[in-house]
Structures are given as C-alpha cells and as structure tokens.
Amino acid sequence: MTSPEKIRSVPRLGLRGRLIAAFATGALVLSVSMGAIAYYTTRHFLITDRQSAALHQAYANAALLRNALAANVPHIDLQVTSLDSGAGSVSLLNDNGQWFSTSLAVGKNSIPLALRQSVGSLHVATQTSVINDAPAFSVGVPLPSQQAAYYLVYDLSDLQHTLRVLLTALGAAAAATTLLGAGLGLIASRRTMRPLAEVSLAAVAIAQGDLETRLPGHRGDADLEGLTNSFNTMVDQLQERLERDARFTSDVSHELRSPLTTMAATLGVLESRRDELSEQGKQALDLMSADIRRFARLVEDLLEISRSDAGASDMIYDTVTIGELVERSLHASTRLNDNFPPPTLFIDPSVRSVRLMVDKRRFERIMGNLIENAANYAGGATRVSATLSHDALHLELRVCDEGPGISLVERDRIFERFYRGDISGQREGNEGSGLGLALVADNVARHGGTVRVEQGPNAKGSDFVVMIPLHREIEDADET
Ligand SMILES: Nc1ncnc2c1ncn2[C@@H]1O[C@H](COP(=O)(O)OP(=O)(O)O)[C@@H](O)[C@H]1O
Ligand SMILES: [Mg+2]
User: Fold this and answer.
1) Among 85-89, 107-111, 357-361, 419-423, where is mean pLDDT lowest?
2) Is 223 exposed, middle or buried (0-12, 13-18, 19+ CB in 10 A)?
3) Same domain, 332 and 464
4) What is the torsion angle, in degrees rounded to the nearest 10, for the CA atoms of residue 465, residue 429, residue 417 and residue 462?
5) Distance between CA 301 and CA 296 in Å, rounded?
C-alpha cells in the first residue's frame, strides 16, 4: 500500500487549518462582494443625483443669462457673478469669445477642449474631468441666439471624500468579517476534531497494550456513530484474535507438559541404569536427556509467557524489604549457576530496608534469567547492585558481567521473543529458547518497571538495568 503522504510531496494544511481557511475565505468572499455591491450602488446613485442637479442648475442659469444678453443688460459680468451655481461650483460665460468667470482659478482653459468643441457645434454637453486637482463635472449649454455659451463647473470633491470614507468603512468591515470567519472556523474545527482526537488517543492506548479501550458512543450523530462502531468492532476483533492466539499457545504448551513429564520420568529410569548401557547407548541417552531438558524448559517458558498474554497468570503480591528480596533471589539464582564464582553484591543502605510490594516468584525469575544469561554468554555475572535511581522513585537493579557485551543493533532485539543473538549459537549445551529476556521484560512490566541493557564500564561486558517503581498503585492484584 502506498500512503497518500508518499504521493504528495507538497506540504498541505492540516485538517484544522483547512477548515479555518475555508471559513475565513468564505467570510472574505461574502463580505467583499456585499461591500462591492453596496459601494457601487451608492456611488452610482450619488453621482447621477449630483449630475442631474448640476444639469438642472446649468439650464436655469443659461436661461437667465440668455434673457440678460437679449435685453442687453449692462455689466454682464455682474450678472454672471450673481448666478446661483451651488457651493464650490463655478459659472463661466463665453460671450462672443469674451470669457467671464466667477472664479479666478477656473477659466476658459479649465474647460475640457472636447466639451468646448461640442458646445461650439451647438450641443449641450457634459464631461467629468480633473480641474485644479479636484474631480469636477462640467456642463456646457450653447446660447446660439446670442453667440454665447454658458458653462457650469460642478465640484465633486466632497462626493469623492464621502465615497472614500465609505470604501474604508467597507474594507474594515470585510477584514473584521474575515477574522470573525476564521474565529468561527477555529471553534468549528475544535468541535469537529474532537472525535478524531478521541480516536487517536484510543489507538495510542491500544497500541500500548490496553485492549479494553473503546470509543465512547455518539448517539444521534449518524456520521460519528459509524466511525465509532467500526473502530470498536475492529478492536473487539483484534482483542478476540489476540486472546485466541494466546490461548492456543497456552493450551498447546499445557498439552505438551504431560507427555514431557512421562518422558522425563522414563529418562530418569534409564539414567539410573546408565551403567548397563553400551557406550553408544550412553551417548544416545546423553543427547536425549539434553534435548528433553531443553524441550521442557522451552515448554515452561512458553506456558508462562502465553498465560500472561491470555491474562490468565495471577500476580501474588508480598511486601518485602529490598535487602531481603535481592539477597534471596540472588542466592537462588547463583545456586543454579554454580560453575562460576558468585557476583559481588552491593545493596545501597538507603534502599536496603525499603519495603516493596512484589511477586517474589516473578522477581526471582527476573534475577534468575539475567544471572543465567551472564553464565551462558559472559563468563558469569561479576556484580549485582541495588540502588536508588536518580529520580529517587525507582529501585535500580543492575546485573553486570565482563563478557563480550551486546552490540548496539541487538540491544533492543534481545528482549524480543525467540530472539537469540549470534553468540548463543557458539555455546554448547546451551538450553536457551530465546524467551528468557522476553520473560524478564514481561515480569518487569508487570511490576510497572522497565529493563534495558547498557555497555559495561570501560566498554567491557554488559549491564542489565531493571527499574522498578518504589510506590505504585496495584490495580491488578486480584486478577484471575
Ligand atoms: N549477558 C549477556 N551477554 C551477552 N549476550 C547476551 C547476554 N544475555 C543475553 N544475551 C544475548 O541475548 C540473547 C537473548 O537472550 P535470552 O532471551 O535469554 O535467550 P536465550 O538465552 O534463550 O538465547 C541471547 O541469545 C544472547 O545472544
Ligand atoms: Mg537466556
């Protein structure tokens, strides 16, 4: 299977980012289009309003001037000045090529040429242009009977200002709406993402071995209910399958036990009569007894590990002092591996009389397997120590040897089931099954602790470090 991530090389926004972006973009598009409609409608309305007002005014003024010119009123310039042309506007009269204006700043040349030409050809004309850096609307009305023309230059700067303020306000509203949209997106994404976060947490818990984890129901939500149901069904099936597998291994090992006991008993009989056997018979007997011991050991280990997988192994807790616990279990282990001198033992006085709640049999198994491995692969353990960890919360148990050590690549793998290192093949008569350290890890985990291997001091040998919490709530004490 190729995951979609592998196909896509361009980094993409996460789900939450995309939701927020969608909300923000929606708000932006909506507010900008509403704003644009509002702006252009208002603008159109205001401008046409102004233009028609200007046109009316121009017609009225032109009529007044025509009458004045017809009546040959003296001081026609005063007539022009007395015209009502509206605030900020300018009236101009072209009387036979002579120009009169109500403003010094606006004269003949301020009127756009095209407008003057249209009026010259006896048409009423209008034009919007920029006069003295301000927008203006000019109207020209020819007065042919008097060989004159009237112009009204209407100032539009206040209108421009109004429209600018409107545009700024609409822009600010659009920005605020976009932010609001993004905020809503954030809230919506939190709500939408919550079930996904639940799935992810549940998956992590399951991956860490808590197979009882299920997703809470989402009643009434058809979309989520489907997801929840299929997730929970998947975990149900997974759990069932794991339990079935574990039960199978456990049952098989159990079934193998009784024939094995018979075989061991038969072997005992044969061994008691060893002297009666021929040389060849003795060799065959030795081979067989080694194999049966190995087989018995494998079945025992397998049974133990599979029972714990099936959740069937009980923990039998006792409260003991650390000093007593370590001494006893070390004694039991070295007795079984007596072809090497016993390791030196150091128990930190600060932990010696600390009481610990442990399953003694399992603790002995931890110590026993580590001591046995040291005997098998490293010329025997050289030192065992029990101290308080750096964080002062754990018992730190170290089993050290000065053997060949364990390569970096193997340091994690040796705790896997059935993993046997290269070194194990070189030992003759070694009864290992590759389950020893897996059992150590399992038993340590049952006490809430961890186990790891380090390189020994001066790069010699290996140190197996077991950390067991000193204070722990025991939830599974009554497990069956
Ligand atoms: N003290 C040690 N020194 C070197 N190698 C070790 C030591 N203890 C364990 N190993 C390696 O780890 C492997 C796994 O150990 P274990 O799980 O006890 O299985 P087994 O002893 O049955 O082989 C061994 O096969 C060996 O290669
Ligand atoms: Mg072993």
Assistant:
1) 85-89
2) exposed
3) yes
4) 20
5) 9
User: What total of structural domains would you count in the chain?
Assistant: 2
Q: What is the pLDDT of residues 216-262, one digit of tens each?
A: 887 778 888 888 999 999 999 999 998 888 888 888 888 998 899 99
Measure the CA–CA gap between 33 and 29, rounded to whole angstroms.
6
* pLDDT at 431 > cutoff 70: no
- For the whole model, what pTM was predicted? 0.60
Q: Are residues 257 and 328 in the same domain?
A: no
| Domain-located, residue 45 | no
CA distances from 56 to 188, 229, 248, 268 (A): 57, 77, 103, 131
Mean residue pLDDT across the chain = 88
Cβ of residue 423 lying under 6 Å from some atom of ligand 1: yes
345 and 418 assigned to the same domain: yes
The ligand placed nearest to the CA atom of residue 440 is: 1
Is 185 inside any structural domain?
A: no
State in Å: Cα 101 to ligand 2 middle: 114
Q: Tell me, yes or no, whether 341 and 387 share the same domain.
A: yes
What's the domain range around 322? 318-469
Mean pLDDT computed over 378-406:
94
pLDDT at 197: 87
Do 360 and 391 fall into the same domain? yes
303 and 335 both lie in a single domain: no
296 is a domain residue: yes
Percentage of the chain beyond pLDDT 70 is 94
Report the separation in Å between the CA atom of 416 and the middle of ligand 2, taken as the mean of its atom positions. Answer: 12
Name the residue at shortest CA distance from atom 19 of ligand 1: 434
DSSP three-state, residue 480: coil
